[in-house]
Specification:
- It is a single chain.
- The protein is about 55% helix and about 10% strand.
- With about 270 residues, it is an alpha/beta fold.
- Strands 3-2-1-4-5-6 form a six-stranded parallel sheet.
- Helix 2 runs antiparallel to helix 5.
């Protein structure tokens, strides 16, 4: 019988991809106003430059292990404890400025001062655009009280906390919140799943892991022996080797799935 449900945060409950897209839209529109130039290709240019720059820093292996992507790098301050976070904090301002400056250069705009302004504008734009999936609160409201709920998210504690602060409806639903940067390892590392299980002292089979990412949420749950639910909102092709226990396309489908599992265990 399912006693607890572990939820991923980004692109499971929070529509992070859309929030980033909106932040890019606002920032690129502002860039066009400031420069008087056509900045329609700026988002793509900055995304490409950011990915390339991000992978070149000595901090890259750490960000991969904790689960901090290049676009979180564009708005995070990373004022978290630990040597690795301090190194990331030290490179973040130059990374952010360089990403925007190089993106502008691709469009023929050689303006480092504007690049610096855009690097400051983007984090504020991201904070102005918190987007929840429409089914998130509805489903959590129906689960609260029936199951123990734990939020299991990869990322910087300070950055994930900002996300929860600008969507204050989410955190109160959860009995525990586990953030990879505070634990020291990220999904799919089996230890963070075992650590989460210990919060309730439940066996793996008593829990469901719900998430959108096969290579973190589903693979990690599989390694820990926890049944998983792949939330495949975008109707992606299943991974060749990582198979979820269950698959749903909409979070509301979790409710009849749980009723079915409860009936089977009765």
């Amino acid at each position: 019988m399912v006693k607890a449900i572990f939820f991923d945060l980004d692109d499971t409950l929070l529509w992070d991809q859309q929030s980033v897209k909106e932040a890019f839209r606002e920032t690129c529109e502002w860039a066009a106003e400031q420069s008087g130039a056509d900045c329609s290709g700026l988002e793509q240019a900055v995304r490409e430059e950011a990915r390339q720059l991000y992978a070149g820093y000595p901090t890259y292996a750490f960000t991969q292990m904790i689960g901090i992507n290049p676009f979180e790098g564009l708005w995070g301050h990373f004022d978290d404890p630990g040597d690795d976070f301090q190194k990331l904090r030290a490179v973040a301002p130059s990374y952010q400025q360089e990403s925007w400056t190089r993106g502008l250069n691709r469009l023929g705009i050689n303006d480092p001062a504007l690049g610096k302004q855009l690097a400051r504008f983007f984090p504020e734009a991201r904070k102005r655009n918190p987007i929840l999936y429409k089914d998130s609160l509805e489903v959590l409201d129906q689960l609260k009280g029936r199951f123990d709920l734990l939020l299991l998210t990869n990322g910087s504690p300070s950055l994930q906390q900002i996300k929860l602060e600008i969507t204050p409806e989410i955190a109160p639903f959860f009995d525990h919140i586990v953030i990879s940067g505070a634990f020291g390892r990220g999904k799919p590392d089996v230890d963070i799943f075992r650590h989460s299980l210990e919060k309730f002292d439940y066996a793996p089979e008593d829990v469901l892991m719900v998430g959108d990412n096969p290579m973190t949420d589903i693979l990690g749950a599989e390694r820990a022996g926890i049944p998983s639910v792949w939330l495949n909102r975008e109707h992606k092709t299943p991974h060749d080797s990582v198979m979820a226990t269950y698959e749903i396309q909409d979070l509301t489908e979790l409710l009849p799935l749980l009723e079915k599992l409860e009936a089977e265990s009765a």
